[in-house]
């Protein structure tokens, strides 16, 4: 399930994914990110994974392709998660992002949001 957070504005997209990331969820995310990327030089992303237990394989593949195509359209990216595979995924995806991805433990999600919003 994809939830758009209130911090989404201007060139910032803030989302929380819970339970399962499905293809329709990814399509919604991709459309929002694409819209911001067309309007702004850089799009900053806050991506929080809360109790995610499954990512549909097609959604994972589509996400990877989107990241490669738009690697230079991203600005600051923070991923918040609590599972080892999420941290590993952030490290792998970081390689195709202009400025990489910073991974944060849920205890530091306020710091992650601050970094995305202000670069601090």
From TrEMBL:
<dbReference type="InterPro" id="IPR038396">
    <property type="entry name" value="SpoIIAA-like_sf"/>
</dbReference>
<protein>
    <submittedName>
        <fullName>STAS/SEC14 domain-containing protein</fullName>
    </submittedName>
</protein>
<dbReference type="InterPro" id="IPR021866">
    <property type="entry name" value="SpoIIAA-like"/>
</dbReference>
<dbReference type="InterPro" id="IPR036513">
    <property type="entry name" value="STAS_dom_sf"/>
</dbReference>
<dbReference type="Pfam" id="PF11964">
    <property type="entry name" value="SpoIIAA-like"/>
</dbReference>
């Amino acid at each position: 399930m994809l939830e758009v957070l209130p911090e989404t504005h201007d060139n910032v997209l803030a989302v929380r994914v819970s339970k399962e990331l499905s293809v329709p969820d990814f399509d919604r995310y991709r459309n929002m990110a694409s819209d911001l990327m067309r309007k702004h030089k850089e799009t900053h992303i806050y991506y929080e994974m809360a109790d995610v237990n499954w990512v549909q394989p097609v959604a994972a593949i589509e996400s990877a392709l989107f990241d490669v195509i738009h690697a230079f359209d991203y600005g600051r990216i923070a991923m918040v998660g609590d599972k080892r595979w999420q941290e590993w995924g952030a490290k792998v995806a970081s390689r195709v992002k202009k400025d990489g991805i910073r991974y944060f433990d849920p205890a530091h999600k306020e710091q992650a949001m601050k970094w995305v919003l202000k670069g601090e």
